[in-house]
Amino acid sequence: MNDPGRKTILWVIATLALAMLPQLVSMPLAVALIAVAPLAWRIGSERSGWKPLPALVRHGATIAGLAILFVSYGDLAGRRAAVSLLSVMLSLKMIECYRIRDARLVVSFSLFLCATQFLFGQGILMPVYGGVTVILALVTLTQLQRSEAWSHEGPAPAVRASITSEIGFSLRLLALAVPICMALFILFPRLANPLWGIPDTTLDSKTGLSDSMSPGSIQDLFMDDSPAFRVEFAGAIPSTDQLYWRGPVFWRFDGRTWEGSFYFKNIEATSVPDLSGNTWEYSVQLEPNERNWLFALDYPATTPPDTRLTLDYQLIRSQPVIQLTPYSIVSSPDFVDMPELTGPLRLQALDLPEGRNPRTQQLIRQWRRETPGDKAFIQRVLQHFNNEPFRYSLNAPFLGVHSVDDFLFDTRTGFCEHYASSFAVMMRMAGIPARIVTGYQGGWFNALGDYLLVRQSDAHAWTEVWLQGSGWTRVDPTAAVSPQRVESGSLSALGTPRHVLDYAWVRGVRNSVDIVQQRWNDWVIKYGAGQQARLFAPLGLGEMTPPMLVGVLAVAILVFSAVVFPIVMRIKGPSSKDPVQKTWQKFLKRLRLAGYRARPSDGAMELADSASRFLPAVSGPIHEIADLYNRSRYAMEPPPLAQFKQAVRVFRPNKNRA
Amino acid sequence: MTSITSLATEASTAGQRFDDWVLERVRQRRGPTELPLAFEYRHIYVMPTRFGFWFGILLALTVLGGLNFNNNMSLMLGFLLAAIAQLTTLLAYRNLAGLRVEAIRATPVFAGEEACFRVLVRNPEHRTRFAIEAVSPESRDCRDIAAQNTVPLALKQLSFERGWMPMEPFRLENRYPLGLFRAWAVIIPKAQCLVYPRPATNPPPLPKTGRGDHGAAHPGEGEHFHGLREFQQGDPLRRIAWRTSARHQKLYSRVMESPSEEACELNWYLMGSGDAEEKLSILTAWVLRAERRKIPYSLEMPGAALPTDLGDDHRDACLEILALHAS
Questions:
Q1: Once rounded to an integer, what is the mean pLDDT over residues B75-82?
Q2: Residues B269 and B307 in one domain
Q3: B144 and A160: CB-CB below 8 Å?
Q4: Most buried pick, A82, B92, B252, B306, via CB within 10 A?
Q5: Are strands B163-166 and B218-220 parallel, antiparallel or unpaired?
Q6: Residue B100 pLDDT > 80, yes or no?
């Protein structure tokens, strides 16, 4: 037989569906459909008794699934694509899963799938997801084991345990495993260096700022409320208008898109701020984004390990950030970036595509004649943004080839990237070197946790102009249009909610609750080889080496086992709901009330004989009940349960005796 | 016939070779199992199942990936599942420990039929034992054993020749609760099953040399009421005369009868010379036929003889003589 049974198959499907859920949300629609369809078919098949699909259809479905995956993802080397492939294959397995072995395979790989989901996020809801998946898997495996034990005799006997008691049993098992799991987690030696790295080509779920900027690119991030990073300051916290978190810097403009140049990304900074003046000291927990930038306030004076500081003060990490990455930095705000601008750099910072934006060109020429001083000219442009009816809005209309012309004279509606881009172009037209800096601006200060939370929606773009004497100087044209953007954040600057749930109080609650995530990150997610080595430092012990850790681990497991094992030995299995046994117990209770004590060693017939001797008046019914019990238990064709119950119900030994 | 045959049924895989090795060890260390036997820790072995083995590899991969990417949540998931797996070894052990194999019984069969050994397993404790399996080379059975209950696990074994057939070694095992580990105990039983000769398929007619008491009714199985007698162990319940019993505060069984016509004599020496086993087969078939037709019969064999009679007891006694005939 080896048939898992209908109820169990539904449990297998539930386990797989839950394990797949986070992946499903991130899949392209077509892939999500092909991942769900086999499960839906199988549920329908179990409910309505549809026949198994012929091999041709099954193989066809597999090939179609692979094709859709390939078309949707381009190639299957990426991590997201690979995990989607695993999900779809497991799902397709369900249309041909008719053996216990296959069902177990699906459940085991569902647990593996669950583990892969943590590569994409270890947020505070993920432990809940993992825990529930494990519970489902345990219940399913328990049922599969039962089906297997009875597989040669047909289906397992009717449900003896309720679902709640099975879940309860799994919960107890889980709870008892926690101490040993914790010991392993804390003491199992970690790798200081990975055995193998992730090739860049497998990273396909990049989030956050990108390595180019075109109209709309930051606007997309604006809808994303996930945390970008969290910052704890060692000393004073800079004022909000100082919180410009520097990320990718762009020099090259093709008329529409701003890009960094390979050349500038790879030249190291020639001078590094010294730490003598005014400094900010802070540590950052960067959420994984699969990009290489670290974010810092202007200007980073220290460089975290595995990171280089470029000529335009970007911090570029050698490996993409694929997990929560902590780093500490000291920034010096008063540093003068590049007092002298040399030939090639100046050329690059003034370069513009030919024959674009003639109207702007004309305007700038005119203004430049009227205002020859650089600083005064900058003020004039900012005033123009401020006085004319420019609007800060998400609903920026499409811009044509002459994008700056369209924006300045026609649409006058845009997001920070529109302002920064136009401003930089105008500066370059006027002969003032300019570049674009993207990053994040502001953040939400969590007073309870004493840290600053920066979300993706805080993404921002501003410009830097080079001025004789002060070097590269930050100018934020968005602030001229919407000072609120800089003072109280992008969301309040906008005025209208982004979606139905977007209210200030909702955002407030979310920001406050973020402290749970921050603590989880601090205590669990960040834990690694370094913390492990210093584990017993507070006790005055030095660095722990892996052999020492293994020794402590062995002792810890022994100690925990000494505590846990006796509890395990008393743990109850799923409780019995066997009605025959219940009725029999009722019968024994009646006998007890009549004064007869049954010997626990007696079987039903022996008990009937000895009870008959004790209560001869009811010897007939006693034998009848014992016979019914034995037949209900062991006979090939047991008597109806109602008959047994009725016989016990009318059995009143104490009355008859009187 | 006394040699220990292996428990392996198919081509021997690593798992089966291991089972055989354990069996051999148990045989050398402790010899045949004395019943009743209560399982203690030294009787019980625990090993991962095939599924448990692959599950372990998957866990190792999860942990390795978690270590490599320093992904603490996948590590924690791997460790949690490993800890759970470790606990299930204990649960599988505990599900078996303390069970008592009380006795093994088998009703006689005819050669070529499947004998059914009933292994009586008692759970003396106050908790249910889940999915306890009995596994022999030829058959398996599975039962839940409720608290303080005795349950027969039936193991079938094909019989080949008449005589006493020893029961083959078997295991009591379970993979509770997740199927990752198997806990088992080996039993090398002394139990044997009586195998009657195979009844000849086309025997000659019954030798009706009637010399018994013609016409007398023979008590035993039948449709007609013969009388009452005090209840004895083994009397079918439906024969109990409840009303009479209630009146006398003592159990009475009804005795039935069927009328008899003639008698026949089944005599080894009158069957001429031929193959001994063939003669035994024919005699067996005659016993069964006479019994079916309610013709009283007597049996005479070298070294044993039974007077004319009829009934299950008589039949069983005759068949036993035939089964154990030394040729």
A1: 95
A2: yes
A3: yes
A4: B92
A5: unpaired
A6: yes
Whether B5 maps to a domain, the answer reads no
Query: How large is the average pLDDT for residues A375-404?
Result: 86
Domain parsing of chain A, residue ranges: 6-158, 579-657
**Mean per-residue pLDDT, B209-233:** 59
Query: Is B133 in the same domain as B59?
Result: yes
pLDDT in the model for residue A330: 92
Q: With contacts defined as CB-CB under 8 Å, which chain A residues touch B128?
A: 573, 576
Q: Are residues B108 and B206 in the same domain?
A: no
Rounded to a whole number, what is the distance in Å from the CA of B84 to chain A's nearest CA? 5
Q: Nearest 5°: CA angle at A99, between A94 and A104?
A: 70
Interface A-B, measured as beta-carbon pairs within 8 A, has a size of 177
* Strands A315-317 and A307-309, bridge-based pairing: antiparallel
Among A145, A174, A600, whose Cβ lies nearest the Cβ of B177?
Answer: A145
Distances (CA, A) of B240 to A606, A614, A638, A646, B236: 16, 19, 21, 21, 7
Would residue A476 show up in a list of annotated catalytic residues for this protein? yes
Q: From the CB of residue A259, how many other CB atoms can be counted at a distance below 10 Å?
A: 16
Same domain assignment for residues B124 and B250: no
Domain boundary among B142, B163, B196: B196
Same domain, B327 and B207: yes
What does B234-280 look like in DSSP terms, one character per residue?
Answer: T--GGGB-HHHHHHHTS-EEEEEEE-----EEEEGGGG-S--HHHHH
CB contact set of A23 (below 8 Å; sequence gap of 6+):
A83, A84, A87, A113, A116, A117
d(CA B185, CA A7): 31
Q: How many helices and strands (H and E) does chain A possess?
A: 25, 18
Find residue A455's DSSP bridge partners: A227
Say what the pLDDT of residue A401 is. Answer: 86
Is residue B323 one of the residues assigned to a domain?
Answer: yes
Sorted by sequence, the CB contacts under 8 Å of residue B197 that are 6+ apart come out as B110, B111, B162, B277, B280, B281, B283, B284, B319, B322, B323
Mean pLDDT, residues B160-171: 92
The reply to whether B85 and B145 lie within a common domain is: yes
Judge whether B237 is closer than 8 Å to chain A, CB to CB: yes
User: What band does B272 get if pLDDT is binned at 50, 70 and 90?
Assistant: confident
Q: Per the CB < 8 Å rule, is A620 touching B90?
A: no
A126 reaches B (C-beta below 8 A): yes
Asked if residue B209 and residue B232 are part of one domain, the reply reads no
Final residue in a domain of this structure, among B259, B291, B310: B259
Q: Which domain holds residue B239?
A: 219-259
A609 is catalytic: no
Q: B102 contacts in A (CB within 8 Å)?
A: none
Catalytic residue among A298, A405, A458, A460: A460
Q: Which residues, numbered 142 to 201 in chain B, qualify as contacts with chain A under a Cβ-Cβ cut-off of 8 Å?
A: 142, 144, 146, 148-150, 152, 174-180
Q: Model confidence over B227-253: pLDDT tens digits?
A: 777 777 777 777 777 777 777 777 777
> What are the pLDDT digits (tens) for A533-554?
888 877 877 777 888 888 888 9
Residue of A2, A107, A128, A146 best to disrupt the B interface, most CBs of B under 10 A: A146
Query: How far, in Å, CA of A422 to CA of A555, rounded?
Result: 66
| Within a domain: B231 | yes
Residue of B217 and A145 predicted with greater confidence: A145
In a domain, B6, yes or no: no
A20: left (phi over 0), alpha (psi -120 to 50) or beta: alpha
pLDDT band at B209 (very low <50, low <70, confident <90, very high): low
Instruction: Quote the number of domains for chain B.
Output: 3
Q: Are residues B187 and B167 in the same domain?
A: yes
Helix (H, G, I), strand (E, B) or coil at B107: coil
Point out which residues pair with B229 in neighbouring strands. Answer: B253
**pLDDT at residue A12, rounded to an integer:** 95
Amino acid at B130: F
Order of strands across the sheet that contains B192-196: B109-110, B192-196, B163-166
Active site residue A114: no
